[in-house]
């Protein structure tokens, strides 16, 4: 039976020939042939029996080609249940980090404050081992439930090969379904104060009113990409609708209807100039999908 028939029969939400821009924080990308919006693990399982899709959470770390995507895309935004139990938070992969942090605060659980301002889903954050202000997801993850080799499995932290902006999910095609965070009993007022303080820092330093994917390049072992880009005089450097933020040199932004090509060329120019002037080779953090 054709996939669309299966989706219809099982009442799985989908859209055909869907523009991808609104599903990304960079607001760049052409149409995907098929976008799937499962509402349960059962629906995901059914989908995965028929296709191996590209998975997206909140699209806050992806750059999508203007010619769009032929491989089906599965967006997990409806898989957003969050529960607190003892000193753990158990949540589905599509839950937003912000909501998870707020739930942790509600239950006076400390450890996730650093993640409050990262605009991703839990699945995307685990995939990226997202981090900020001295902490990373690997500091608080206990285990992850995944779909791998046509089975649902539970993988403990040890198996996830976390490193700076790296997890095992970059090397296998497993799909993160849900996550257990192990937190500590804290003080609600202090948790709130930490979240407020870090949010304030972001507001001051980052161009949060512009389309971006956050820091475009990874930190190196002995440098911050933003410092090198700034030292090279590249703040405001532009390729058509894409430019290096004047507020934070690590953020490349789409400030005037940038195309994929504009943004990609800007990344290349920044990399070339930084390498020429400093000898350091910047490695992209943003995931390119085409
Ligand atoms: C303003 C701004 C600030 C940011 N600040 C930070 C920061 O401080 N620290 C930081 O680390 N990042 C930061 N980011 C980048 C981004 O928010 C994080 O990398 C985030 O974790 C990505 O989550 P996402 O759900 O948006 O992932 P997506 O962009 O949707 O996906 C990213 C990758 O993860 C994969 N993926 C997503 N979900 C799953 C899943 N369930 N199973 C398997 N693979 C999956 C995708 O296929 C893709 O390869 C920032 C971005 C913006 C726009």
Q: Could you give the topology of this structure?
A:
Elements: H1 3-9, E1 13-19, E2 31-37, H2 41-48, E3 54-56, E4 62-64, E5 73-75, E6 82-85, E7 88-92, H3 97-106, E8 109-110, H4 122-128, E9 131-132, E10 135-136, E11 141-148, E12 151-156, E13 175-182, E14 184-185, H5 188-205, E15 211-215, H6 225-231, E16 238-239, E17 242-244, E18 251-254, H7 260-278, E19 287-289
The structure holds flavin-adenine dinucleotide.
Can you offer a commentary on this structure?
The chain is an alpha+beta fold. The protein has 3 domains: 3-75, Uridine Diphospho-n-acetylenolpyruvylglucosamine Reductase, domain 2, CATH 3.30.43; 82-190, 2-Layer Sandwich (Uridine Diphospho-n-acetylenolpyruvylglucosamine Reductase, domain 3), CATH 3.30.465; 207-289, Alpha-Beta Complex (Uridine Diphospho-n-acetylenolpyruvylglucosamine Reductase, domain 1), CATH 3.90.78. It is built from 7 helices and 19 strands. It has helices at residues 3-9, 41-48, 97-106, 122-128, 188-205, 225-231, 260-278; strands spanning 13-19, 31-37, 54-56, 62-64, 73-75, 82-85, 88-92, 109-110, 131-132, 135-136, 141-148, 151-156, 175-182, 184-185, 211-215, 238-239, 242-244, 251-254, 287-289. The strands form 6 sheets. A 5-stranded antiparallel sheet has the order 6-7-13-11-12, with helices on one face. A 4-stranded mixed sheet has the order 1-2-5-3, with no helix packed on it. A 4-stranded antiparallel sheet has the order 15-18-17-16. The longest helix has 19 residues, at 260-278. The mean pLDDT is 97. It binds flavin-adenine dinucleotide (FAD). The site of flavin-adenine dinucleotide (FAD) has 33 residues, from strand 3, helix 4, strand 9, strand 13 and strand 15.
